[in-house]
Structures are given as C-alpha cells and as structure tokens.
Amino acid sequence: MTRAVWLVFLVLLIAVLVAIPFGIRQRYEGFSVPSASMVPTLLPGDYILVDKSVRDPARGDLIVFQDAADATQQLVKRVVGLSGEDVHVAGRQVFVGCDPTAAGCQALPEPYADFSDRPVASEKSGMWHVPAGRFFVMADNRNAGEDSRHYGTVRWQQITGRPFLIYWSSDPGGGIRWGRIGRIH
Q1: What pTM does this model have?
Q2: What are the angstrom distances between the C-alpha of 33 and each of 42, 64, 74?
Q3: Domain boundaries, the chain
Q4: Which fold has domain 29-180?
Q5: pLDDT tens-digit series, residues 111-139
Q6: Of 94, 72, 85, nearest to 147 (Cα)?
C-alpha cells in the first residue's frame, strides 16, 4: 500500500512541477524596452516583468498593450485619461475633466514627464474625448514618443498588463546597469 501512495505522490509532484511554469507564464511575462519613449522611467535595454492579471489601470499606471497598427508589437505607455473623460493637452501640460482656460482648472502633476529630447513628431495640442472602454495614454518622454495624440485611444482588449519590475538592464555598449535591476514601477 505504501508503494501506491509514493507513486501517487510522485505523479502529483511531477504534475505540479510541470504546471508551475505554465501558471507563471499565464500571469507574468517579460518584455524588452526597445525605444526611448518612456525615458526616464524606462530606458532602452530595460527588461520588464509584466503582470498580465492587471488589466484595469488607473491614471498614472504604466501599461503594456498591443499596437493597433501592428498586432505583433507591444508598446508601453502611461495612462493619462480614463473612459468617459476629456483630456486637454496644452503645450507641456495635461488637463483632465476641465477646460484649461476655466478658473480652478489644474494641470495633472506629472513629475515623470520629460521634454529634453528633440521632438520627433509634430506637437499635438488639443482636446480628446476618451470613449467608453478605452484609455488615453502618453509617453513619459513626450518629445521622443508617439501616443494617443497620434494613434488614438487604447481599447481595454489591447491591454496585456502592467509592468511592475525591471528584471534586467543593459546599456547600448552591453554594460549592465545594476542600479536599475529590481526597480519596481
């Protein structure tokens, strides 16, 4: 009888060991950051771990999502506007839910926004309405990246998940950026 118990235990142990990587892969996935659109938050050469169970982001969250123009590409941007909101971009400031010319209208505090690069796309100011089930996203490096001002809002179905950890980082010369590894976003 004990031999049968050990055999069942061994089969269950093997099943669990085989299932764990699949379970982890269902929830977490690694992505590399290829461009400077999210500098200084994420740098080219950063490898991020994405929690695929987080698909209902809040304002200020980073999200990884499928590019609507190329389904093989994943993009990472920051959520600025939520479903049903009006987003006003006026120069370097972003206003949500109010007209920038109205008294008391405050710009979003965006300590992560960077304007140090030379603009690669024409500056787009204006007002955008975020339809139901969609999100307005912007690059942290506002001059180097395209975002919802250029390609429209992101559908909920496009969202892959939320990056939460830099698990590897290397500079263009191949050196390891030790100080970035383990950063949580």
Answers
A1: 0.83
A2: 7, 10, 9
A3: 29-180
A4: Umud Fragment, subunit A (2.10.109)
A5: 999 988 877 666 688 899 999 999 999 99
A6: 94
